[in-house]
Amino acid sequence: MRPNARFTDVQPIGLDAVAAAAGTDPDVLRLENLDTDVPPPPAAVAATTQALASGEGNSWLPLTGLPVLCEAVAGELRSRTGLDYDPSRQVVITSGGTSAVMPVLLATTEPGETVALTDPTYAGLLQRVRLSGARPHFLPLRVEGGHWRLDRDALTQVTTAAALLLMSPSMPSGVLLDRDDWAAVAETCARTGAYLIYDAAMERLVYDGHPRINPCQVEGLAERTITIGSVSKEYRMIGWRIGWIAGPVDLMDRIRMAVIYNTTVSSGFAQLGAAAALTDPSGSGVDEAAAEYQRRHDTVIDQLAGLPVVRAAGGWSCLVNATALGLTAPELSSRLLRYGRVAATPMTAWGGTIAPDYVRLVYSREPVERLSDLRYRFDTALTSG
């Protein structure tokens, strides 16, 4: 096989290997994945079923999204940002939120340019930066008072960047950027001329009454922000594979072209289901889902009291420090599965120098009852062998 420089630093995501090792044993606590057992909105299921039965949406067109969904996304963004997005010029539908990342990177960066990300960050963001030909620059997250915090001083050290690629709440840490964090991001973008690529997939999955802050609400960011969203996390519609990109008109022309040549078109049936979720007057259960994920999160934190687990402020995963337990993250992951029957992913590919110390615990698919013996499983894993 001939060498290919794009893949020199790209690392395997890890969770698929852990899932394969866990197999189908029902006793294994599945904390490695990002599936969820919280059901999708009934309105989305009904709309998708109706579209399948009638054949509506079984088309290649429009290549960048059905008007009804583009309009629904624009309405969703208006409620979050207060901004009016032109659904025909500023919104593009993609095959899931993660599939939107590469077209945005191709449209905003040149090979060799820098993209700033937090450490830890989602491997699907970091490794796409590398595949695009850009270079990651890590902004460390620090543990303060048992919570993750963005190191704002690290932002002042960013001297050149094509983009900042950020998520809040973020996978895998659950860090939530506050208004002062976003103000520091705005200053960095203004100083370097960088775009903000904002992954908003979990924006409303926030715990403990923390305010939900969209960066477009912060002075100086609206005109620089490209927002990536999806129905996968908040709306629990993972299998629909529907996401979107929204941003400045001039840049969206370039992004639209990259989307067309990357994935051609998203499922029309699924787009109609997504539109139903976004326009559902009941809210499609987003707040209820966030409350359920917090119950599970709090159970994990209570179960692991005294161990080096870091609280999340939102999302549906948290991290435990393997190094503080005297193990590498792959070693802890292996011991958890072998002795504790817990599938959990080492964060080897999820950052720079900080992430590889941690193992991720995803509680989106495991109810509180199943999580209630997590401490016993951990203790067994740590003391066996």
From TrEMBL:
Domain Aminotransferase class I/classII large: 35-363
Pfam families: Aminotran_1_2
UniProt KW keywords: Aminotransferase, Pyridoxal phosphate, Transferase
Gene3D superfamilies, A to Z: Type I PLP-dependent aspartate aminotransferase-like (Major domain)
InterPro entries associated with the record: Aminotransferase_I/II_large, AspAT/PAT-like, PyrdxlP-dep_Trfase, PyrdxlP-dep_Trfase_major
Protein's UniProt keywords contain Transferase: yes
Annotated GO biological process: amino acid metabolic process
Record carries keyword Hydrolase: no
CDD domains per the UniProt record, alphabetical: AAT_like
Required cofactor names: pyridoxal 5'-phosphate
GO MF term set: pyridoxal phosphate binding; transaminase activity
Alphabetized PANTHER family for the sequence: ASPARTATE AMINOTRANSFERASE
Family, as annotated: Belongs to the class-I pyridoxal-phosphate-dependent aminotransferase family.
Entry protein name: Aspartate/methionine/tyrosine aminotransferase
Organism annotation: Nonomuraea jiangxiensis
